[in-house]
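Office hours follow-up: a student asked to see two folded examples consecutively, so here they are.
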Amino acid sequence: MKILNNDKQATQTVMFAGDIHGNVKHAQWVFDTAVQNECTHIISCGDFGYWVHLPRGEKFVNSVAELAQETNIKFLWVDGNHENHDILRNLVEKHGDLEPIDTPNKWVQWIPRGCRFIIGDTTFMGYGGAYSVDWKQRVEGESWWRGELINPYHIDGLSDDPVDILVTHEAPLGKEISYKDDIPVSVSQRALVSELVNKVQPSVLMCGHHHVRESWNIGITEVNVLGRDTMGHESVMVYDV
């Protein structure tokens, strides 16, 4: 399991961020807020904005890498539904899914689905994916990809060793949180996240996707749904690990 500690600081402080959506201005605000909170890591809970097939997407990712290096804050992200899943599939084929993958370098890394890693003495697992409610208004291969959905067979194949913190894009079941709960496919994706929670028994789950700020408990798990890039402090949460 990969250890991602920041050697220059004894205390490891992680900021979790909701959907950034390729918004450079919001990414700058996230880093500014992380600096104020003396964070060593930022973990984005999906819909980061990995559209490097477009010039504006590549520029955004490079800007985040520059911010990370300038502030000495490592940035990691799980995939949301709005990422280029064709490129992500190719990255897994090339590098495997056991460690975070450079996107574009060590300062910005994608956490493949089911990947486990350690910060401080805290174990993490990342698991991205969700359903795009607007997929019919998008163009396959340009602004929408079939690889967005969580695969139940992949969940079944994961180890049931427990983790401390689970980072997903989709939320588990347990509370109605947005209009997406009226869509059967979306609800079924939430059910798969619940299955994952039951499997790895995290103390904390961080997620995004629903563009709201909500919290509740499922057994031993504290669930936190973070807001999107227009929601300021409701889109981030800081944890010492």
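And the second, which I mentioned at the end of office hours:
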Amino acid sequence: MITALRGMKDVYFEDAKKFEKFLEIATKIAKNYGFSQIETPILEETGLFLRSVGESSDIVGKEMYRFTDKGENDVCMRPEGTAGVVRAFIEKKLDRAGGEYKFYYFGQMYRYERPQKGRLRQFHQFGIESFGESSYLEDVAMISMAASIFDTLKIKYTLKLNSLGCEKCIPTYKSGLVSKLTAMKQDLCEDCGRRIETNPMRVFDCKNESCQKLLAPLPRITDALCDECESDFGGVKAALERLGIAYEIDKNLVRGLDYYTKTAFEFVSTEIGAQNSIAGGGRYDKLIESLEGKATPAVGFAIGIERILDLITLNEPKRDGVYFAPLCDEAVLQAFEMSRDFRQNTVTYLGYSAKSPKNHLKAADKHNTLWFAGIGENEMDTKSVWLKNLETKEETNISWQELKAKISEEK
């Protein structure tokens, strides 16, 4: 038997309903914040992620689905969404046009990592990207938007916050950090040793306990911010407090991608096990310039949808729609014709063959329909329908012409 590949999961039944609920809420909130949809290709040039995500990241170093296509192009399945949106932004010369651009997206991402609960090789992200606004208040707007999504879904979370500095304060801090890390390199894990040369601040993201003990005394970038970064970070904290959004400062929060600067944030949940990050993002003012675009401030976040599926609760299903039941052979096509008309505005099911009322009622119950519309020999003669409300159990005979109005007014 052929089965789904390891780390790839089918989405249907209850999970599909949770996906639908999440997207309905997240999309509505994104639009309320002034964002419009963008969809980028799943397949991109590998160079896009090498230059944006960064070769020091685990994504590029270990996890990309990368191959050479028939045209001898080095391509990969997108491991995250921001880089593709930035590529589209530059390709359409929006960086040259000036102004603000706000996009949201939803789609599949691919990372070849060890599958576990909440972590798949094919997974879905809902992402937000804002271009052209340098104010720290846009950082707060991103955090507020994510918080609104989780609050609406009734998902409990803790917000972790940090500042990663900018081109003014990072070089001096990084130089001192590299010196200290080099001195202890032989005692650090292989990943931390590699990161000393590529992105030394990423060592603080290491989950190795022995590394964490060694790194604990070292200063963090949060303690070495320039005046501008310090002011912006203070503004972010003050605005969150005014909005009533609780946060925790986490000086080890550096995010897993190399392009973040200044504000970095992460939403975590204690209800989903080890993979407890449910959303994360921050500011990436230098990314567009690093991809040969015009320098443009930018900030965004992404939510890993599989991470939160178990935290989404569905409302008790209400009876809805109509089931057309042919009770004699002559009524089969009549029921089919009427169902086609109803399907313009109403959830509609029907039986394809004549059965007893009892069997059709079982089918209507299985679909949880509100209305049962039976058509037998008498109904064919009188051009009527035996209509039963499966919630109140009230029933009546009604003409074909009156049926739609009756169901519409009692929806």
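Two things to take away from it. Residues 13-169+225-311 form a domain with the BirA Bifunctional Protein; domain 2 fold (CATH 3.30.930.10). The radius of gyration is 28 Å.
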